[in-house]
């Protein structure tokens, strides 16, 4: 998938990433959009929004993506679930080394069904696959695939990180993430209807666009934990 200038696109797709705190949702977005990781990873507070124009490998269409990265903490759910509405695709992320994050997936899926249209594409994504090499996997691929198949979800595994000891190639990692997004986009395009986002909340940035969260909620925290 190639990134393009922000003009001449034929479709707008809204993609929402959800899942427990510290499963690596923000790292996945950074790796996909910028092929890098944020300097200091902290838990997302509320919602972060990025938009990019890409050409889908699977369809050849030029698409503007609106990617919404939501907080996983319980106290932010009243804020974040509002942004599920109108989503063309949702990616539920869990950490393969954290069994509890996988056990929370049914709750996230139920919340999605209450707040998204029936045609929304839902993908289950096992993140931090690099930890498998150090015997930290706690959720088997077979268990996750059984759950995905039982609920009609597309299933993938990947990692936004790589461990020098196992010598994982970062180019292969970002390529894998691109394929996951591209497949999700291709699936969503067949069910998509054009929607407008709240443009008054957007502000330009050289690395996409993010919402000014001060306009959206009044909760602040000085105790951000790493993720």
Automatic annotation (TrEMBL):
Keyword field: GTP-binding, Lipoprotein, Nucleotide-binding
What's one GO MF term for it? GTPase activity
Q: Which domain of life is it from?
A: Eukaryota
Which InterPro entries does this UniProt record tie to the protein? P-loop_NTPase (IPR027417), Small_GTP-bd (IPR005225), Small_GTPase (IPR001806)
Q: What is the official name of this protein in its record?
A: Uncharacterized protein
* Provenance organism: Blepharisma stoltei
């Amino acid at each position: 998938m190639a990134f393009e200038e922000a003009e001449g696109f034929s479709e707008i797709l809204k993609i929402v990433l959800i899942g427990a705190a510290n499963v690596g949702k923000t790292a996945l977005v950074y790796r996909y959009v910028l092929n890098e990781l944020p300097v200091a990873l902290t838990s997302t507070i509320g919602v972060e929004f990025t938009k990019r124009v890409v050409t889908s490998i699977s369809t050849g269409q030029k698409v503007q993506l609106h990617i919404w990265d939501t907080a996983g903490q319980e106290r932010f759910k009243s804020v974040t679930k509002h942004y599920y509405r109108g989503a063309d695709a949702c990616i539920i992320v869990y950490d393969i080394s954290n069994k509890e994050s996988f056990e929370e997936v049914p709750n996230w899926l139920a919340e999605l069904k209450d707040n998204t249209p029936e045609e929304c594409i839902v993908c289950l994504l096992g993140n931090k696959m690099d930890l498998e090499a150090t015997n930290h996997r706690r959720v088997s691929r077979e268990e996750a695939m059984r759950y995905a198949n039982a609920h009609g979800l597309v299933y993938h595994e990947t990692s936004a990180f790589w461990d020098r000891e196992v010598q994982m190639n970062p180019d292969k990692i970002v390529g894998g993430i691109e394929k996951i997004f591209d497949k999700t986009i291709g699936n969503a395009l067949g069910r998509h209807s054009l929607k407008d986002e709240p443009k008054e909340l957007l502000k330009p940035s050289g690395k996409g666009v993010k919402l000014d969260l001060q306009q959206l909620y009044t909760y602040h925290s000085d105790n951000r934990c790493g993720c």
